[in-house]
Amino acid sequence: MSIRIILADDHPVVRIGTRAVIEASGVGGIVAEASNVDELLGHLGRHPCDVLVTDLSMPGSKHSDGYTMMERIRRSHPTLPILMLSVSNNVGILRMVSSLGVLGLIDKGSSMNELPVAIQTVHKGNTYISTTLKRLAGEAGDANMSGDGKKSLSPREMEVLRLIASGLKVKQIADQLNRGVTTISKQKSDAMRKLGIRNDAELFDYLRRQGFSN
Known about the structure:
about 15% strand; single chain; 11 helices; about 50% helix
């Protein structure tokens, strides 16, 4: 049976090109297209689909941040296979999005010949990382994206690291996320322990190397 796909990207040329590749391959059919997050959320509520192919972030909505958008989608559609199209070479951001359950990541600048295989792979519940991003992750020493199997951080731990990299203190993060200071401190400590980081100096060096501070 043909895979039902919802396609979301704020650039019409990307949607046109992506649709053309999908339809030419015969891997599936586009049941809806969205140009912003609000349209995407509406389509997800109205159209049954088997795979979501979406940009990392789209403007024009309070959910335009890629992480916020993915959290919203995951709450409403926890089992939906998601393939992310990205122009980002920020491994930290890509890893953070991957931690939310995105099964596939494809670099828009790489060959779209990978797209049909990626759709089939995530539809089966398996992970697909495009050749370009896998090489980038390997160069950055990111075991979770490059396939080396290191224990991954939880979405909450990744969120705390992202906010630390933005310059916020533990108390400020707790206020912003409406959590206790003790909870944020523990999530920070747990993340450092998993990463083998011993102090804040090593943590900020890690965040810089992984691209969180870009």
